[in-house]
Amino acid sequence: MINNKIVLTREIQAHGVHFEGRIAMEERRPELHAFLLEARGESGVTAEEVSHSLLDLPNERSALARKLLDKLAQMNLLEKVADRYALTPDGETAITTERIFIDEQGTWSAWYVDDKLIQDVVISVAEWKDPEAFKETGKNAPRRTLRPPDSLLISRIGKVSQPAVTKQKVRIDTIPDLIEPVDPQLLKLTWEVDSRFLSISGNLEDCEIEAELAAPIVEPQKIWEQILEEKGLRSDWDAQDRLLRRGFDQVNDDDRRKMTMILDLSSSEHFGDEILPAFGGFKVVSLPIINITARDEGDAQKWAEWRLRDLVSDYATHARFSKWQHESIYPFKNLSADSISSRAVIANEFCHKLASDAPKHQLFWHVVAAQDWNL
């Protein structure tokens, strides 16, 4: 292939909801990080020990330290056994990342998608402040539609997500039985296979978004071969030389000259079907420019003869014609200069095709005159 860029795009539907609940967001909290470090030993730590070592307070005033340690235990970062606090696996992670999930009760906007290529279905979580809230009071306030959360959103409760749009890691801890749905939005998903780049773009709640996601780990060549297979072209693909074999009549003049083409899926008998259904299906596909060659010896012969005549751009002297012959057969391994027309053959062909009183094309004079004058 000349360039190896396969770009696939499709529209995906994003689902949005507003709800009151508890969400934990990952933050840097160095003041709490110090408490976790104190509890790192095998025996853990007491409130009195923390009060003395970190707060520089006498043991009898350890209530503040105990309150902070209890808060960390509620966040599952510490485990309380009797009067001692020990580090949990989540606490170990918090020490390593130097970040802690801080939960907060509030009103939230969440957007999520159900797509085979997107690993983390939650793409946006942010605090929601209804711009119409102050207008929607009294008897004329519109009635809001509420519904139960769907199974996809429920499946994310208690699990850490890193939304592609809002970036900050979050954990949805609670969702009420009824939530307010938002009109779904269509987003554009783009997969640049060779650069392993996956992104979404579009509009969420009047905000333009463009975000990168984790791309599938798949070899580009496998995707290319799957496209060829689905379009019935696998048998025409020469994987060793990376060429697509085409019949002479299957390509246009420009492709015959350049020995390249852009595969036009609209010419396939399967046009309209989505390709790559295993990856969610795509109808909009940008494919690479590929090298092509003749499908068989008969096509190679016709192609070389066409290329020879197409190359004639001046008087066909012996030297020039020999050069054009070699250029015309160069793409075809099994052809030699002796296997295609000589200057005399082409000159005779022109003479027989044109009546003596017919207007002569410039190509006629370039070949016939050169042959007659033995240039």
Account of the 3D structure:
By secondary structure, the protein is of the alpha+beta class. It folds into 4 domains: 8-22 and 102-213, no CATH class; 29-98, Arc Repressor Mutant, subunit A; 220-295, no CATH class; 298-372, no CATH class. It contains 11 helices and 16 strands. It has helices at 30-38, 47-53, 63-74, 89-97, 151-154, 220-230, 253-258, 297-311, 318-329, 343-353, 362-372; strands spanning 7-27, 45-46, 78-81, 84-87, 100-113, 122-127, 160-161, 170-172, 180-192, 197-204, 207-213, 237-238, 243-246, 260-262, 284-286, 289-294. The strands form 3 sheets. Strands 1, 5, 6, 7, 8, 9, 10, 11 and 15 form a 9-stranded antiparallel beta sheet that branches. It has a 4-stranded mixed beta sheet with strand order 12-13-16-14. A hairpin with a 2-residue loop joins strand 10 (197-204) and strand 11 (207-213). It is elongated and about 115 Å long. The model is unreliable at 267-271 (pLDDT under 50).
